[in-house]
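**User:**
My hope is that you can spare some time for a protein that puzzles me. This is the protein in question:
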Amino acid sequence: MLSKRFIHLPALALLMLGSLNAMAQPLAEIKTNQGLIVVDLNSEKAPNTVANFVRYAKEGHYAGTIFHRVIAGFMIQGGGMDANLELKPTHPPIKNEADNGLTNMTGTIAMARTGDPHSASDQFFINVANNTSLNFSERSDTGWGYTVFGRVIHGMDVVQRIALMPTDGGDIPFQNIVIESVTIKE
C-alpha cells in the first residue's frame, strides 16, 4: 500500500507543476487615481495582442494617460490619450486576433480600434456589460470584432465606479480618470 502512494506522488507533482505552468499568464496591474485594477492577460489565446500591451506597459506608455471614453452599461476606454485629450505616439498597428474564442463579456479587456479591423495599437477598453455585438463573427470588415486579451480578476468595483462617472453629455468624463501606471507581473 505504501509503494502505491509513492508511485502516485511523482505523477501528482508533475500534474501540479503542469497546471501551474498552464496558469502562469502575465498579470497587468493598472493603477488609477480611482483604485487598482488587476487583469489576467491571456497570452495563449491572444499572443500578439498581449505582447503589444506588455510592450507599451514596459515602455511606460500608459503612465499619465486617461480613461477618455466612459459609457455606463457598456465599457471604459483608455490608454492612448493624455489629460489634454491629445493622442500619444504609437507603434504600428497589430493584426486583429478576435477570432481566438474569447468574447467581450463583463470584465474582459479588449483592444480598441478604428473601422479598420487591423488598426489596434495602444488603446484598450474594459467591458462593463456582455457586449456580444463586439465579438468576432467572420473575417470581414464588419465581422472581425474586437480582440479580447484578458479579464479583470481584481478591481471590477473600480471599473464599475469609473463607468458611472459623470460625462460631458458625450463619453468624456468631467473628471480625469488617470492611469498612473501599468505594471506587468510575469
User: Anything to note?
Assistant: Strands lie at 27-32, 35-41, 65-71, 75-78, 108-111, 124-127, 148-154, 178-185. Residues 2-23 form the longest helix (22 residues). The radius of gyration is 19 Å.
